[in-house]
Amino acid sequence: MAPRAGRTRRIPVYAIVLIVAAVGLAAYWNGLKAPFIWDDDPAIVSNPTIRSVLPLSESLSPPLETPTAGRPLVNLSLAVNYAAGNLDETGYHVWNLAVLIASALLLFGIVRLTLAGADGRLPGDALALAASLIWVAHPLLSETVEYATQRTESMMGFFFLLTLYGAIRGRESGGWLATAVLSCAAGMATKESMAVAPLAVMLYDRVFIFDSWRDAARERGWFYGALAATWVELGLLMWRWPRSTVGAASVSSWTYLVNQAAMIARYVGLAVWPRALVIDYGLPRAIGVTDVLPQALLVLALLAGTVVALVRWPAIGFLGAMFFLTLAPTSSVVPIASEVGAERRMYLPLAALSVLAVTLARAFVERLRAKWPARARALTLAAVCVAAVSVAALAARTTYRNRDYATPLTLWESAVATRPHGRARFALATEYVTAGRHEEAIAQLREAVADYPDARAGLGAELFLLGQRAEAIDVLDLFIGANPSHPNRIPARILMGQALLGQGRIDEGASQFSAVLAADPSSVAANQGLATVARIRAARLLEQGNIAQASAQAREALRLNAGDADAHNVLGITLAQQGQVDEAVREFQVALRINPQHTQASRNLERATALAREHAK
């Protein structure tokens, strides 16, 4: 017999936890040993502030211009991982998975509380569980588990959901309101996207609890004020750790907004059919509205539908509003110059879509049950089976996606195969270089420079290593010329200087090393380069018979690089020709200590020694 209307079946809490955790583990069991990739290097591998949890003044002070800058709680969590397992990647992924599972449990709690009045024919607990399982198993969230640094998104999402959960439970206890405010503050210290959390709480209250904004403000105005006060904290964090890539002048707000039309449409498509996922969508492109007109019309239609739903079906409208509200900080008019899109941005928006999908499915099943009451039990069983199959299919797809993260090479190969652009090709070329596949690396780099000019640095380096110095010089010259004063040009200048020396263009090579020293006086490589220049000049002067100047240049070479065996050899020759045989012997001996295989120094030592004996007679 069907339960009476108004009764609610409750699934035991321990069962909910076990089911959600089991689905999470089933989806990610094969990805917990994934290696560090991309931004994991500055955030984890080379981040000195996570080397110890204490003092907190250090672990809560991430370096500027890193993925954890302005996100001290994320940096602290990485310090905890480091303390537990050093650079063992597994611990970092386990933390990320635990955050995802905990967030899914919060989502379950939010939906269950919201559906507390649902009738017993399709219990609120079952709907909440279905939404949570779809969300936790969905491949769109894989980046927040497999890409260790992107816990910035999942931890922010956890605190966002905890804030909303605490706000809902706050009608029962003031302690929950305090929890919501503290969670909101913690979220602000995790990622800037948390800025919309106070607005989400107020909108939830208006849709599900209060009849008007006035009633909401009268009863909970102080609470909203406390939530809004966390914006001050966020402002201070953004001031302390500014990001050069956010609001960058290189990308206009309009250009970024037009790009987001295409990205949001893609996010929606991936939410429905999650195939061909991408780790890097590249940089914003200079495009017009006509280039993305179909996608823009889709986004506008979804926005219009959300507005209409907020008026006619507020609960549905709330879910649509949550989709756009939680996407807004990263996918609207505030340019993020470093990336046009990222699947991790769908962490919270996908939660709204998951609940929306389950809600619409429930309404559809209810209509069928009303039309065929005799088949109500069969229809309910069919709905449960469809939900279970959907969750299983999503989890299977996630395990399949995890295989791309097995190595950086497989990850970037999948990225280039799915969405080829310059930066992805550059990253793939870097992995090819590491694997010793230099010809394939050069092929990718030649493609990359078309829309990612910085790839010229890698192309020039590869050409140099393969002995193609003339082309290497041309490529590096273009790279340096685009922005000669930028610090990242220093390695390119050193490489170009070495290539110029290899072609006998000594003065041009010297100018490159001098430019490096002007920007970085402590550069060892530049000093060594100038030492090589002085040694080559010494050898040429020696050939021309200018012994005094050759000796001076050899001494200059050794001043810059005392470990240059060739310079010691040249200096020894000049000394011998000036009659300073004993000093020459010492220079040849030093050259051989540095390089015992130096045949010229060995022969010169024999001659100088013999000459010294003759002089002794």
Short key terms for the protein model shown above:
single chain, 617 residues, mainly alpha, Serine Threonine Protein Phosphatase 5, Tetratricopeptide repeat, elongated, disordered N terminus
Short overview:
With 617 residues, the chain is an all-alpha fold. It has 28 helices and no strands.
Give your account of this protein's structure:
- The N and C termini lie far apart (123 Å).
- The longest helix has 28 residues, at 213-240.
- It contains 28 helices and no strands.
- Among the domains are: 13-36 and 87-241 and 252-371 and 390-403, no CATH class; 549-617, Alpha Horseshoe (Serine Threonine Protein Phosphatase 5, Tetratricopeptide repeat), CATH 1.25.40.10.
- Helix content is 70%, strand content 0%.
- 47% of the residues are buried.
- The chain has 617 residues and is an all-alpha fold.
- It has helices at 13-28, 40-45, 56-59, 72-85, 89-114, 124-137, 143-146, 151-169, 174-188, 197-209, 213-240, 253-272, 293-312, 314-327, 347-371, 376-402, 408-418, 422-434, 438-448, 455-465, 469-482, 490-502, 506-519, 524-543, 547-560, 565-577, 581-594, 599-616.
- It is elongated and about 120 Å long.
